[in-house]
């Protein structure tokens, strides 16, 4: 069964007269890592907020585990099953310390205190923040704050985690930490991951890529055969990771890899 | 610039007062604020002073912090004293300066009111110096939660307070960043005409507000995504623990109140 399904999904902001999302029909499967790429304003964040009922469709529907996000009774369940990590680490840290921030979601869900203590222990070890549980947000790096957010969501035992450009405000170290965490979440713990990103090298780590353009999903490709995809990606003006640029360039000029090597290293 | 800000002037520590339940501390301070208005004798103030000294030793807070916190009210205290001294015309004339005469009752009342103000501010300062803002919020939430029945949103107010406290450092950091950026572009916050300074100030406020709105939106989404839905059915990680110190405090302060009643004239 698809874990999330979009049916003729449309979205339009009240103040605007154009649809931001235009008739999407897609399924996201259990355990896969899907990345969504696309220019600024193509509707990625809007779409991500529809995955767990933070916004409601103005046309069509979103189904999570077979339940419509518009059903009032399912909404708490859906919010628990589909966790969201946002872009700005500072703006999603709500509590005075890391420990309290991890507990925030569980408190809302009415989890008993003893269970909370156990889970905080468990998830903080899982994302490697057990040594900073007592710290206040202004003493943490961006990556540490994002990992606290991930821990807080993990504590609710979700099946899906959505990352909306969660690495874009981090330094290279923080980015690496979060990417590694995402990788483990998907490959070790079997969570379904949806990651929105500007970086193709991040998208290439996933199983499938949606390319969004002006409210539509223009392409839906697997990452099994990246070399075949490079052409349109480049045509869309996406900066390819360095090794692929090199590969494309060499291919265009019909330079053989061995020749390239002699060119660089000399005879 | 803002590295050394102490939020809500809380001073972490391990004293008797630090170990007390914030609910007991708040209740005690409220009690003291009420009974201080019943005191009308020198003996009463002497007893209050003794209590203030005892509490000082229980707080472990260095005196200079208390002095710093109380300094702004000194002006108010002096003003109140002179108002009473000038305008109360009862009892014997103590002395005259030119056309002004100072009466015994005026000086007495001036001193009493000043002492009340000082003691009031002193006890509240010790409360905030020895209790972290988040403990204060938790305690207030619990103390006001019975009012939920009358539609007073104690949980929501407490959540708002704790988030406001949480974002104070963020706001300070942002202010500092913007000041640096504007200074780099030639703005000067310390020199120039009034007009220039106002302009610099506006150039600081506008981006601050824009960011604050942006942040509020992000925060609302983040909280909703994690299932925040008001206070109903919520559990709490933080516990307030009532200990022997708190019971002792209640007993002592009740006794204190009784003795004060006997010292009334
Ligand atoms: N709150 C809003 N009100 C009105 N229009 C919005 C709002 N948020 C986003 N939009 C518009 O919707 C479009 C898609 O935005 P968004 O989903 O944030 O794109 P992305 O995340 O891909 O950059 C943009 O044109 C944006 O201007
Ligand atoms: Mg976006």
From TrEMBL, chain A:
Family as reported in the entry's similarity comment: Belongs to the ABC transporter superfamily.
Domain ABC transporter: 4-239
Keyword Nucleotide-binding belongs to the record: yes
UniProt entry tagged with the keyword Zinc-finger: no
Designated name of the protein: Energy-coupling factor transport system ATP-binding protein
GO molecular-function term, one example from the UniProt record: ATP binding
SMART domains per the UniProt record, alphabetical: AAA
PANTHER family in the record: ENERGY-COUPLING FACTOR TRANSPORTER ATP-BINDING PROTEIN ECFA1, HEAVY METAL TRANSPORTER
Family annotation (InterPro entries): AAA+_ATPase, ABC_transporter-like_ATP-bd, ABC_transporter-like_CS, ABC_transpr_CbiO/EcfA_su, ECF_ABC_transporter_ATP-bd, EcfA_1, P-loop_NTPase
Membrane topology: Peripheral membrane protein
Keywords: ATP-binding, Cell membrane, Membrane, Nucleotide-binding, Translocase, Transport
Compartment(s): Cell membrane
GO CC term (a single one): ATP-binding cassette (ABC) transporter complex
Automatic annotation (TrEMBL), chain B:
Keyword Ribonucleoprotein: no
Similarity field: Belongs to the energy-coupling factor EcfT family.
Membrane topology: Multi-pass membrane protein
GO cellular component: plasma membrane
Coiled coil regions, renumbered to chain: none
Keywords: Cell membrane, Membrane, Transmembrane, Transmembrane helix, Transport
Annotated protein name in UniProt: Energy-coupling factor transporter transmembrane protein EcfT
Gene that this sequence comes from: ecfT
Compartments where located: Cell membrane
Biological function: Transmembrane (T) component of an energy-coupling factor (ECF) ABC-transporter complex. Unlike classic ABC transporters this ECF transporter provides the energy necessary to transport a number of different substrates.
MF terms (GO), sorted A to Z: transmembrane transporter activity
Bilayer-spanning residue ranges: 24-39, 45-63, 70-87, 107-129, 242-263
Record carries keyword Transport: yes
Pfam family, one: CbiQ
């Amino acid at each position: 069964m698809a874990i999330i399904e979009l049916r003729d999904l449309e979205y339009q902001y009240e103040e605007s007269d154009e649809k931001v999302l235009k008739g999407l029909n897609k399924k996201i499967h259990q355990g896969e890592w899907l990345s969504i790429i696309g220019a600024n304003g193509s509707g990625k964040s809007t779409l991500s907020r529809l995955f767990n009922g933070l916004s409601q469709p103005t046309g069509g529907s979103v189904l999570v585990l077979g339940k419509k996000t518009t059903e009032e009774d399912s909404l708490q369940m859906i919010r628990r099953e589909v966790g969201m990590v946002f872009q700005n680490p500072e703006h999603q840290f709500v509590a005075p310390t890391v420990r309290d921030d991890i507990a925030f979601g569980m408190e809302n869900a009415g989890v008993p205190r003893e269970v909370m203590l156990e889970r905080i222990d468990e998830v903080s070890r899982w994302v490697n923040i057990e040594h900073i549980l007592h710290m206040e947000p202004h003493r943490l790096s961006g990556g540490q704050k994002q990992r606290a957010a991930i821990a807080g969501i993990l504590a609710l035992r979700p099946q899906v985690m959505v990352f909306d450009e969660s690495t874009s405000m981090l330094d290279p170290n923080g980015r690496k930490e979060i990417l590694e965490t995402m990788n483990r979440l998907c490959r070790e713990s079997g969570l379904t991951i949806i990651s929105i990103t500007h970086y193709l090298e991040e998208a290439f780590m996933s199983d499938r890529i949606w390319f969004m353009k002006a409210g539509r999903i223009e392409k839906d490709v697997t990452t099994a055969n990246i070399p075949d995809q490079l052409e349109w990606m480049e045509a869309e003006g996406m900066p390819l990771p360095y090794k692929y640029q090199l590969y494309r360039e060499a291919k265009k000029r019909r330079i053989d890899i061995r020749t390239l090597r002699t060119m660089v290293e000399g005879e | 610039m803002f590295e050394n800000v102490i939020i809500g002037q809380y001073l972490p520590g391990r004293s008797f007062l630090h170990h007390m339940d914030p609910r007991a501390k708040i209740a005690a301070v409220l009690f003291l604020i009420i009974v201080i208005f019943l005191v009308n004798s020198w003996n009463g103030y002497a007893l209050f002073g003794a209590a203030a000294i005892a509490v000082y030793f229980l707080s472990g807070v260095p005196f200079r912090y208390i002095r710093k916190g109380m300094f702004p009210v000194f002006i108010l205290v002096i003003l109140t004293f002179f108002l009473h001294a000038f305008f109360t015309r009862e009892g014997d004339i103590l002395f005259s300066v030119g056309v002004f005469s100072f009466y015994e009752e005026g000086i007495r009342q001036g001193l009493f009111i000043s002492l009340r103000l000082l003691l009031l501010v002193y006890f509240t300062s010790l409360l905030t110096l020895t209790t972290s803002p988040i403990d204060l919020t938790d305690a207030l939430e619990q103390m006001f939660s019975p009012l939920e029945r009358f539609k007073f949103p104690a949980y929501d107010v407490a959540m708002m307070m704790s988030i406001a406290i949480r974002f104070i450092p963020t706001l300070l950091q942002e202010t500092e960043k913007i000041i640096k950026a504007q200074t780099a572009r030639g703005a000067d916050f310390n020199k120039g005409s009034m007009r220039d300074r106002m302009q610099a100030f506006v150039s600081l406020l506008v981006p601050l507000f824009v960011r604050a709105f942006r942040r509020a939106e992000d925060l609302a989404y983040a909280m909703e995504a994690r299932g925040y839905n008001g206070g109903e059915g919520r559990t709490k990680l933080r516990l307030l623990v009532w200990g022997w110190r708190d019971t002792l405090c209640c007993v002592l302060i009740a006794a204190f109140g009784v003795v004060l009643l006997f010292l009334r004239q």
